[in-house]
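Example 310, ligand alpha-D-glucopyranuronic acid.
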Amino acid sequence: KRIIRVALSQSEEHPEYKGMETFKKYVEEKLGDKYEVQLYPNELLGGQTKAIELTQTGAIDFTIAGTPNLEIFADVYEVFSMPYLFTSEDAYFAAMNDTDYMNKIYASTEDTGLQVVTWYNVGTRNFYAKKAINTPDDLKGLKMRVQQSPASIKMCNAFGAAASPMSFGEVYTEIQQGVIDGAENNELALTNNKHGEVAKYYSYNKHQMVPDMLVGNLKFLESLSPEEYQVFKDAAALSTEVEMAEWDKCVDEAKDIAQNQMGVEFIDVDVDAFKQKVLPLHEQMLKENPKIVDVYNHIQEINEKAKEGK
Ligand code: GCU
């Protein structure tokens, strides 16, 4: 049998792993005489940049990576790292579910041997640290971990913090040892990845909604018959459905555990103050990277429509 290897950063408890269990089950039910799907969670095969490279060379077949980690493979993905790109969750979902438009973005990694197959919702990213962040000024001078993404580094520095890019798996120890002061992520990082043990203040400044992507090796996908390809596409779509349903359950649970068992304090902040600090970055990024202009404008239209409730 041909072994299909899938690398994930997340643990077996994460919604994405549950989604990929469904992917595995579906593919094996339909094509089990030919394929066996093996899942490698917890960055077992390396951090996301490494896992994308392994997917690119065909050493493995799929990986799940956040769009920030795809920026160095196709810089159009920088758009998703723009702080406050989406003005509401509705707009975010409308944009990501606009498959015809998104397929154009997904195709952008093809010349690097990669194809994006589906996306996963991983909530909203917020800052968390060893000390409370109440206003943008509190970020001044803090060393904050960001993903290995040019746009995330710009974003973090625009907030006045000092961006410290590294892979996800390194963050816990670096906060614990005081090499960095904190990081930014969704609530599951506090529990699933235990960051709440070492960073006790989580501020709802809501700077990004960045999706995760299922990225496949293009050659492998192109080698499939149309029927087989459809099975993999359907399996991917199913994995997204499962992931999203799980996600909604997991966020509330994570918040509860972080607050009541880990002693993390959740702080509501004046989001607008944080927004004003970094909005000039939009103009700057649009100037520096013409490839994001079209998708940026498209998302602004979606933001407007979502506001009008259309
Ligand atoms: C989230 C996201 C991952 C990403 C991680 C990170 O957990 O789902 O894809 O790797 O953040 O900050 O590195």
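Summary: The longest strand covers residues 201-208.
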